[in-house]
Amino acid sequence: MKITEVRTHPLEAGLSRSFAYSRGQYATRMAMVVEIETDAGLIGWGECYGPARINAAVVEHFRPFLIGQDPFRTEWLWHEIYARYRDHGQKGVVIQGLSGVDIALWDLKGKILGQPIHRLMGGPLRTEVAAYATGLYRRDAGKPEVYLAEEAAGYCEEGFSAVKLKVGFGIDEDARVTQAVRRAIGPDRGLMVDANHAYDTVAAIRLGRKIEPFDIGWFEEPVIPEDAAGHLAVKTALTIPVASGECEFTRFGFRDLIAQRAVDIVQPDTCAAGGLSECKKIADMTAAYGLRYSPHVWGTGIAVAASLQLLAVLPSLTPPSFHPIEPLLEFDRTEHPFRMKILTQPIEHARGKVAVPQGPGLGIEIDRDALRHFRVR
Ligand code: CA
Known about the structure:
Blueprint: E1 3-21, E2 24-38, E3 43-48, H1 52-66, H2 74-85, H3 93-113, H4 117-120, E4 128-134, H5 144-158, E5 162-166, H6 171-185, E6 190-194, H7 201-211, E7 219-220, H8 228-237, E8 242-244, H9 250-259, E9 265-266, H10 275-288, E10 292-293, H11 301-311, E11 329-332, E12 353-355, H12 368-373
Parallel strand pairs: 4-5, 4-11, 5-6, 6-7, 7-8, 8-9, 9-10
Antiparallel strand pairs: 1-2, 2-3, 4-12
């Protein structure tokens, strides 16, 4: 069997209402979908996280090399592409492009064999994954203490056992809003905070001390991703666990973060850190160091499906146990015009749990009309 075509689908859509995090405003959502076809007529789908047009250019650059290759050689293809671009792209868009290709190849393998990816990666340890709600972004108008408390309570009503709040808007405001959200959701739900590396070590520790009384599940990206020692300093100074990894890439990037135990929770994005092949390796390395793995997920249903296929095979860190610590899925609740529209069947949560898709490959079907509709013009 041979790869006969590689197509890119950069997608984009405007939002009805923009929302803000610590480093800017979202007025649009974008994604880059990879389609790989074989001479057997089967098609594999993947997704790249990052700037869609640049990701598309990267994957189009890989195209001449991929055509004619055996789609089953995922490991060799990953290393060959990585080695060809090593001098120019050990992190960032090159690896994001490679991630989308790798996911599409795994989807293909599953479809050829008639099995979901998790069956090919070790078989299921779970058939559903607990999800936390990502949202709680800033709006143009209103008091964040009020509207974020309401929004968080809504996620709890839906059944989510944990929510993640954006911080990075100034220490005093962050502390006030964190307290308001904790009050709104009560003592039994998880509350995580995410600074998107808005702070330096001094400011992050200062904020951490102020929000420690509010039982924070983790402090995500307190400092810039390049500063592993800064993460470690924050972790050491606080009783709050530290999480990071959405801006890190490949086993080589994560090796340094993990070996220094700079974080407690490792958060690779399957569509950015190197795809399913690489994220399985990162997850195994994470487990070997006794750290938790909780992927960053910010894409379409393809990204959600890829994340679920990997989460299905990750062992609990505490086996066997009356209180097993299971991996968590990030479930983005912010507006996304085509997140699930590009699937014929959306992936939903039920009381905060998401079922692992059981169909061949990623276990999803793509709606080509939606792909055309949201294509970048
Ligand atoms: Ca984040």
